[in-house]
Write a structure and sequence with these properties.
alpha/beta; 7-stranded parallel beta sheet; 2 domains; Rossmann fold; 381 residues
Length: 381
């Protein structure tokens, strides 16, 4: 097992391919995160890898940088296949790999359900990398539209979530369609029995990387909480936004109805926001996320749909409009900020009936959690 407590290094220490190094620098990566520091050398050496790390630790670049170096843009056929549990994550991984491989001329196609299959099929012959969900990848392979016999690097991203969603049979069929001599990288928040089963059956003496529990919450995240009456939450949110002046912010609510209500109220008060939740169509979600990533929308109000699996860089603030249901959700949410060595701020609003859930947050946040004060909007506690 490879531990992640080695001395800090920079991306220059990896001596990356010049074109990949240029893309890494342009993406604004400051220093490798622990999972990147441990995983990148192993994957570049050709080892199979099982990496256990929470969302928000830089896993996409951990396999994306080696993948960008591995691909031969002149060769025909699919060389890299990355499987993800959701369409949203497939889009995010695709964007990251496109960014990392652009100066090497690497072509990529993202394949998932809910959109036109024809557009995806048309791109496959010209692509070296496929990123997709198991169902669509398997469907294309069965139709003879996606040949997996040339895959040399297979990535299983968010493996525990993928298997929890019932994709094990599809994942195994896809793995068996790839060459036995391929390199395999598996990234997972937890190493469950099903994840271990994949490792035993389909990987060759894999190395292991584990992010220790102490690293579950990012030290560069400034964590605040405000006690506020439920009826005053919107006003409190707007006041804290005025104080903090975020560059871009994710605002998390429990329900779809709440995301719509909060985003509508913010827009009415001169702070244009968009809501994102499962009721929106896939094209609507993709358009909203694209506008947020490009800076056209400053505030994104979301359910937990966006708390895990969406790697959105440059988020300066996370607001827990509703206290997370448990400590794990809190970790996933605040992991949306302070990416790639940057600093970030997480703000939680605690209302009258939030004591039990907030105790779990306090336990995981520890001394990093600071109490803020809003004179106008307080609750008797």
């Amino acid at each position: 097992m490879i531990e992640t407590d080695a001395p800090a290094i920079t991306f220059d220490d990896f001596e990356l391919d010049p074109d990949v190094a240029r893309a890494v620098a342009e993406a604004g990566y400051v220093t490798p995160t622990p999972v990147q520091q441990a995983s990148i050398p192993l994957l570049r050496s050709g080892s199979d890898l099982i990496a256990q790390a929470q969302t928000g630790t830089g896993k996409t670049a951990a396999f994306g940088i080696p993948a960008a170096e591995l691909v031969d843009p002149e060769a025909r056929g699919i060389q890299v296949l990355a499987l993800t549990p959701t369409r949203e994550l497939a889009v995010q991984v695709s964007e990251e790999l496109t960014r990392l491989g652009k100066y090497r001329g690497i072509k990529l196609v993202s394949v998932y359900g809910g959109v036109s299959m024809k557009a995806q099929i048309d791109k496959i012959p010209h692509s070296s990398i496929v990123v997709g969900t198991p169902g669509r990848v398997l469907d294309l392979a069965r139709r003879g539209m996606l040949d997996l016999s040339t895959v040399s690097f297979l990535v299983l991203d968010e493996a525990d979530r993928m298997l929890d969603m019932g994709f094990l049979p599809d994942v195994e069929r896809i793995i068996r369609a790839t060459p036995r001599g391929r390199q395999t990288a598996l990234f997972s928040a937890t190493v469950t029995p099903l994840v271990r089963r994949l490792g035993v059956r389909y990987m060759r003496n894999p190395e292991s990387v584990m992010i220790t529990p102490e690293e579950r919450t990012v030290s560069t995240v400034r964590q605040l909480y405000y006690e506020v009456a439920e009826r005053d939450k919107v006003h409190a949110l707007l006041e804290v936004i005025e104080r903090e002046q975020p560059h871009s912010a994710l605002i998390f609510c429990h329900t779809q109805m709440a995301t719509d209500r909060v985003s509508r109220r913010m827009t009415q008060m001169g702070m244009p926001a968009r809501a994102i939740h499962a009721r929106l169509s896939q094209p609507e979600r993709e358009r909203t996320l694209a506008e947020f990533r490009e800076g056209k929308v400053k505030f994104l109000v979301a359910t937990n749909l966006a708390a895990r699996g969406l790697d959105i860089l440059h988020v300066s603030h996370v607001f827990n409009y509703d206290v997370p249901e448990d400590a794990e959700t809190y970790v996933h949410r605040i992991g949306r900020t302070a990416r790639m060595g940057r600093e970030g701020t997480a703000v939680t609003f605690v209302a009258e009936w939030d004591d039990e859930a907030f105790q779990a947050v306090k336990k995981v946040a520890g001394e990093q959690l600071e109490a803020g004060r809003l004179d106008m909007y307080t609750t008797a506690r």
